[in-house]
Amino acid sequence: MKCPECNEELEKGAKFCGKCGVNIEVALSERVKKEANDKAKEEKELKEKIKEKDKKNNKNEQEEVTKIVDPEVVEEVQKIKEDYVKKENDEEKKEDKKAELDKKGYESLKSEPKFKKKNVEVKEKKHTLLKIIIVLIILLIIVFVVAYELYKNNILPEPVQNAVSPMFEKLESVLNVENKKSTDDSDKGLVYDYYVTEIDGKKSRIPNLNINTEKASEINKEIIDLTENDLKEAESNGESKLKSVDYEYFQNENVLSLIIELSYENDENDYHIYNVNVESGEKIENSELIKNTNMNEEKFTDVCVERVTDYFDNTYNSNSSINKNALGYFKARLKTIDKSNFEIQNSTIYLNGEKDLVLITKIYDIENNNGKNTKINLTEEKDIDSNTNDEDTDDTLLNEIDPNT
Q1: CA atoms of 28 and 296, how far apart (whole Å)
Q2: Beta strands 202-209 and 348-351, pairing class
Q3: Which of 27, 77, 251, 311 is most deeply buried (CB count within 10 A of its CB)?
Q4: Global pTM value
């Protein structure tokens, strides 16, 4: 026996074709129905042709008979013709009825238990596959959520934590989710090493605040964005200008001062200061910070100018080979002590361990006019070198020089 659909040879008792997968019983029923319909159609077309031809012939015959036969004979012939047409119509109705019965037979086949059972089996297979897919998706979501919770609570091993951090940080950024990591472990201290590495024999550390608030988390993210990518690039291929990152911090009651130093090639450096309230995790403004000292806002700029001037003069007066009246010296000095450098809201200040107010400002070089960030204690009394006034400078020239030229 061959498949009614693809003409492939079938095995004995096969219910489905091994090549095209068609249901043999259904295909046979459809084929029988199709052949019956085609046959009925052909017979109908043939009868219509014969009928048309007979009509034409009968018409001709009737005309001839009418000429030679009397009216009674003509009437008899017409009756015979009508009986023949009626008989033909009855046969056509029988054929249509037979085709209708064949169609009903196929429909009754579909309603048989065996046919229904196969349809149910196919539907059950589809439902089972769908259930498996849904279960797998749910399992993946559960694994992802668990991994994220472990990441937030710093429970993952350090290599895994470092590997998944970029993915979760990007996801948090896209979804605008605050990362409230649990960083309140007592053994970590108020500030702990978030990332540690060594580049060219020099240790680098990226800090994180161990304060479990949203504001502190924002600061931690800011620190990571500021340093991590450049540091890892320097660690992997050495192409980054950043050479090391280190930090120190001081706590004075509720004030935490975190000082992060970034060292670059050519002996350049940069500082990022975070003065934070240890209870709320919020940044402390400079105007609030100096309230913890004996200084006030009105005197801040003057004190900065005084201390920085002392530092500059003491640094260069100790070198007798430097000409204090040279143009480079005056430019560097004016640029270093310019009052616009010491506006309180734009200054970089913090409290050290003795609760002294420390300023970070640029001290400009007299040779190349490049500035290097330097820490100046604003609270200590002036410690002016005795040689400070050994060589007098021309104050008139000093006032005429533009430090920006």
Answers
A1: 102
A2: unpaired
A3: 311
A4: 0.51
